[in-house]
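User: I'm writing a short methods note and want a consistent example. For Transcriptional regulator, LysR family, I'll paste the sequence; you return only the structure tokens, no commentary, since I'll be parsing the reply automatically.
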Amino acid sequence: MMASHEVLQAFVQAATQGSFSAAARKLGKSQSTVSAAVASLEIDLDVVLFDRSSRKPTLTAAGHVLLQRAEQVLDAGNRLALAASQLSQGLEPKLSIAMSDTYQSGHFDAVLSAFEQRYPDMELEWLIAEYEDLIALVQSGRAQIAFIEAQEVYPPDLTGATVGERAELALFVSPRHPLSSLDGIDQQALQQYRELRLASVINPNENRPAGRVWSAPSFVMLMEMAILGFGWAALPRWLVERFANGQLVELNARGWPRSVAVDALWSRQHPPGPAGSWFLEKMLE
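Assistant:
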């Protein structure tokens, strides 16, 4: 048995308004219609929902339990109707956002919270990638928006805008690493030790430096290798502060730390839908 929306509404309103007559006024129906709806629901459920022994009906113990369930069913029905309406108006069913670990932002967190309130039933996918991998995710349509360390030039099918906040990269090593005891480190000193370098999956050997190098496609993997003492790495400061648990030290190196701009990136050919456009607008405010 599946109770109708109208019957559940009559039950919920009778419970919350305190009487069948008040529920009838709230719903714009007659009192007899509301009473009959509640009575039919009790018959269908084989449960007494209201104690009618006094002037005003009061919920029974079973009524209290089933009131919560009825409210959940009505809420789910409302969300279903809203989602169907939004989809019929062109709202995308899913939004995929790809991000570099370079970028961490309180503003992004605030926009994400506002997005959850505005589009509570939309599926959101959060992807982590770097450099060319981020660009490829947007070009392929796998992600509708990317946040990437700003590049001088982007492919012609993509467009972007710089967000207001910048990211900061610094050089880090394990406290056990020989570089950790040096001061005023220059490039020559760095070249004597293994570099832990970020490399994309698509073009792992692009801009490969001379010397000993271990590479990985994510800053998190580089951080783990640095903690284990395998070399030095340029890492986002926020990532080290939040997750390294004091297992890395920052090098006093010339030219570091570095502040980098972050761009929001999207496709010209397949621009984000209404929800993605809203997200972009809020991020670029």
